[in-house]
Amino acid sequence: MPNGLPQHRRLRRIPLHYTPLLFFLLAWLVNDIRSVGLTGPANFFFNLRLDAAQNVGFAKLGLLERLYPWAFALFVFEQVNAGRGNRLRRYLLWGVMVLYAVATMAKFGLLTPI
User: How do the domains of the chain map onto residue ranges?
Assistant: First the structure.
């Protein structure tokens, strides 16, 4: 029994408090989704879909492709080690996953965690 806790009671934790980063990521995603969706020749959601298809001449969502694997890894970690202490982080990560699905206009972002 290291750390004085039985093996079945110890929770794994990431030694970095990344909740403020998740709030920043959510705000950034909402802003980028809004700006990409409003620019373009078609309606809001079709503009997002055209951007996800990487058509030339459309605004890009930028770092979304690089941040999604990081967010997905954190999402899986927090869901596996679910508890009352990480409820806010789990909700924020669900928000990131939903916004990713909206930004790419694809169901893959939501079906993968389910």
Answer: 17-111
